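Reply to dn_fold:

You asked what the input looked like. This is it:
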Amino acid sequence: MDQEKPKELRIIVLSDGTGETAAQITRAAIVQFSDKEIYFTRYKNIRTKAQVEAIFEDAAIHHDMVVYTIVSPDLREFMQHKAAEKNIPAVDILGPLLNAMGGYFHMTPKSLPGLFHQVNDRYFKRIEAMEYTIAHDDGRDLTGMEKADIILLGISRTSKTPLSMYLSHQGWKVINVPIILGFDLPPEVYEADQRKIVALTISADTLSTIRKARLERLGQDDGGDYASIDKVIEEIDYADQIFRKNKRWPVFNVTGKALEETASEIIKLMVARRKQMGLPTPGEHS
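and this is what came back:
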C-alpha cells in the first residue's frame, strides 16, 4: 500500500501594510513547532474585499491557515465571515488589541492602514539625522556636506552644537562649522548650496559671560583671553565681516533667546526655502 504524502503546511499572511509585523509574530510562534516544515505566503497592502475573497478562495482549496493584521473593522469582519464560511483557520492579530485599547482609552481607532510604517519611517529618519549631525559636529568632518539640510556657522559658544542637536531631533541633518579668528572658512562652505547656510551671532557681554562660566566649570581660572571682552568683541567683529561679505546668509542673534526659539525661527526659514526649492521638509512624512 502506498504511503500517503504528508499535507504541505502553509500559512498565508495578510496585511494592509507591509505584513512585516504579522510575519514576525507568526515566525516567533512557529519556533515552537520546529519539527514541522511550514511555508509562508505574504500578501501586502490588502485593502479591498475582492482581494480578500480571492485569497480566501485559494486558502480554502489548499487548506491553508490565514494570519492577518488589518486595521479596518469592516474588512476584519468580512475576513472573519469568510473564514467561518470556508472553514479556514484564521487568526486576527491586530483586531483584539485595537478593540481592547479603544475600550481602555475611550477612543475609536483611526483605522488608517500604513500608519505604523509612516511612524517607523519618521523615527529612522530622525535617527539618521542625529547620527549625521553628531559625526559633523564642530567642523570635524566636512565630507558629505551636500547631504546636510542646514549648515550652521558661528564663533565659539554661540550655541552651534546645542542647536544642531536640537534640530537633528526634529529630523534635520546639520553641519556646524566654527569661525576662528584669523582663519578662512573651509572652501567646502562656499561650494555648498548657500541656501542651506545659517549664521549665528551674539552680544559681546553675553558671550563673555558664557565663556567665563564655561572656564569655571572646567576649573580653569586662567583661560587666557578666551573670555576677555576685548577678545570676544574682536571675534564677533571678524565673524560679522564674513557675514557682510556673504549677504545671502541669514544671521540669527541668539542673545537672550531660548534654544527652542532660535531653532523654531531657523526651521521656519528653512521650510520656506525648501518649498521654493520643491523639497520636502525633513522630519515630516512625505
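The chain has two domains: 9-113, 121-277.
Hope that clears it up.
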